[in-house]
Design goal:
There is one protein chain. Helix content is 48%, strand content 14%. It contains ten helices and eight strands. The protein has a six-stranded parallel sheet.
Length: 242
């Protein structure tokens, strides 16, 4: 009850109330290891189905009680199921196993007021974006440019179907100021600024980033977005992307 009261107070202050569910790939990976989990989607489909049906039933039981007492703003799922060469599960695995799991949980919480369903995955997720959207996902981070995740290209293709957080190439901070400005001007163009984008680095600030470059990044980004210059006395600046 104390946590419920704290969550209500946080929401009254305008903070985002989030709930999390185990990942449809991440959970089997935690149980079996990455290689065995990947193979199990092909060699042991009944096992994967059993794992995810158990996770589904547990999530539904817990979130049914939670959302009866408090509306949740965002449902979150951590996957990290992709690398530079693409995702470790393809569209078929999303459609057969992971998608129905997501959809069952999302249908419950969205019927009770939840509006955002966020997935956290590094790497190139382009091949499975359509399947994720069909499963209810409507928000994604961190959009890793080094893996081919281009927020401008995705916005052109999907329009407002997918909200985006991240997308700014962290590696550009170690390059020239001209490179930083070029990255920000491209990513912060009118198409991506219209709606549904929270701009930020796709990961933590890289080692070796000059402080002057980071300050330039913040100043230039605020300038392009039409945000007043940072006032250190009133603001801590931009939150980092973990």
């Amino acid at each position: 009850m104390a946590r419920l009261a704290a969550a209500r107070q946080a929401r009254d202050r305008g903070e985002l109330v989030r709930a999390a569910m185990p990942g449809g790939f991440d959970l089997p990976r935690q149980l079996m290891g990455e290689e065995r989990a990947c193979m199990a989607f092909y060699d042991q489909p009944e096992l994967i189905a059993d794992i995810l049906s158990t996770a589904r039933d547990t999530c539904l039981a817990v979130l049914d009680r939670v959302t009866a007492e408090l509306a949740v703003d965002m449902l979150c799922v951590h996957e990290d199921f992709a690398g530079k060469s693409g995702p470790l599960v393809g569209p078929r695995q999303i459609e057969r196993f992971i998608g129905p799991y997501y959809r069952a949980v999302w249908d419950l919480v969205s019927s009770r007021g939840t509006r955002l369903f966020d997935i956290d995955s590094d790497g190139d997720c382009n091949p499975v974006l359509d399947g994720l959207l069909a499963a209810g996902i409507n928000h994604m981070h961190p959009f890793e440019p080094a893996a081919g995740m281009d927020i401008v290209a995705v916005r052109k293709r999907l329009g407002k179907e997918l909200a985006i957080k991240g997308g700014i190439d962290k590696h550009v901070l170690r390059r020239s100021k001209a490179d930083i400005r070029a990255e920000l001007e491209y990513k912060m163009q009118p198409l991506t600024r219209q709606t549904g984008t929270i701009f930020g680095l796709d990961h933590r600030i890289p080692n070796g980033t000059p402080l002057e470059n980071y300050r330039y990044y913040v100043k230039t980004g605020r300038e392009i977005l039409g945000i007043p210059p940072l006032n250190p006395a009133k603001s801590r600046g931009w939150a980092r992307m973990a």
